[in-house]
Automatic annotation (TrEMBL):
Residue spans crossing the bilayer: 169-189, 223-242, 262-280, 286-307
Tagged with keyword Transmembrane: yes
InterPro entries reported in the protein's UniProt record: SpoIIM-like
Pfam families: SpoIIM (PF01944)
Organism, scientific name: Sphingobacterium pedocola
Keyword Electron transport attached: no
Listed name of the protein: Stage II sporulation protein M
Keywords annotated in UniProt: Membrane, Transmembrane, Transmembrane helix
Length: 320
């Protein structure tokens, strides 16, 4: 884009930001924060394409003013931490919402393939899950306890191991995005195939409903945040493939920073999922209604955090 076109496209916004800075006491702090982010984006673009121009100097000065105003009252780390969790994470979620949708669609597709393939090929489940695991599950089903696998071992040790393992899977889904999204796609697809095959095994032996009330006590959060982590990885890969008006390196840096914020938001959910799997899922047969309540509450928490809240903030701060 020519510099004149860049200025023409953004000059009204810059004038509005200058007015907000001049009347900072009357402006919502969140709007000032949004203005600062927009300025740094424009400044990065100007530094890349017009490094010696007056536009670059102007935006740099404006960004410095904005930074001083925003952070002069946020000197404590507690304020910065609160701002991060109350604002920055939701903005990052909104910015990479499309890759997260792609991640969900890919995971659901893999689930369907795993389920259908298992139905039409009796050896497929064993290929995916392994003979030992399948035989153990069948024995548990015949014994009237289809999800007995979740009752093995120590609760605390199991919860800790599961949490660490889930975070590892999420991190791999995130970091493998650097391989042009292919690595992340593999993580999502392989896990989706496994989940679909696992569910068919219960369906085949007529304990589908009972198994669901066990698996999804922890699986609602666990699988949802793996999809979120996959969305982070796809966002990174797409930033390299489709850098838009930025250089590939600059696009990669900007998107990785956003995706990392979203990934951080999944850690508390993984801890909750691990705790549920280690301490609660083993008691799934006590009350089906308690299981349904936990599943519903978990689903609402995920939907609110990654869909409703980011959209509310997008409307409030005019990200839409």
């Amino acid at each position: 884009m020519r510099e004149a076109s860049f200025i023409e496209r953004n000059k009204e916004k810059w004038v509005s930001i200058e007015n907000n800075l001049a009347n900072k006491s009357e402006v919502d702090p969140d709007i000032l924060a949004t203005n600062y982010i927009e300025l740094t984006n424009d400044l990065a673009y100007a530094q890349t394409f017009y490094p010696k121009s007056k536009t670059n100097i102007y935006l740099n000065e404006l960004a410095i003013r904005s930074h001083q105003i925003i952070y002069k009252d946020q000197k404590s780390s507690n304020n910065k931490l609160a701002h991060f969790f109350q604002y920055e994470i939701y903005e990052a979620i909104w910015q990479i919402r499309r890759p997260m949708i792609y991640s969900l669609l890919l995971f659901l597709l893999a689930n369907t393939i795993g389920f259908v393939s298992s139905r039409y090929d009796e050896h497929f489940v064993r290929l995916i899950m392994g003979d030992t695991y399948v035989n153990m599950t069948i024995d548990n089903i015949k014994a009237g306890n289809p999800a007995a696998v979740y009752q093995q071992g120590d609760s605390f040790g199991g919860a800790l191991f599961i949490t660490i393992n889930n975070i590892k899977v999420a991190f791999l889904a995130f970091i493998y995005g650097i391989f042009l999204s292919i690595g992340t796609g593999f993580i999502l697809f392989s896990n989706g195939i496994m989940v679909g095959s696992f569910h068919y095994l219960f369906y085949k032996y007529g304990v589908f409903q009972e198994a669901l009330t066990a698996i999804w006590i922890h699986g609602t959060i666990e699988l949802s945040v793996i999809v979120v982590a996959g969305g982070c990885g796809l966002a990174i890969g797409n930033s390299i493939l489709f850098p838009k008006s930025y250089t590939r390196l600059d696009s990669f840096k900007r998107t990785t920073k956003r995706a990392a914020k979203v990934l951080i938001s999944t850690i508390p959910f993984f801890i909750v999922a691990g705790t549920l799997e280690g301490f609660v899922t083993r008691y799934y047969q006590v009350s089906v209604w308690l299981s349904i309540f936990i599943i519903t509450l978990s689903l609402l928490a995920i939907v609110y955090t990654y869909i409703i809240k980011p959209r509310q903030m997008a409307k409030k701060h005019e990200w839409i």
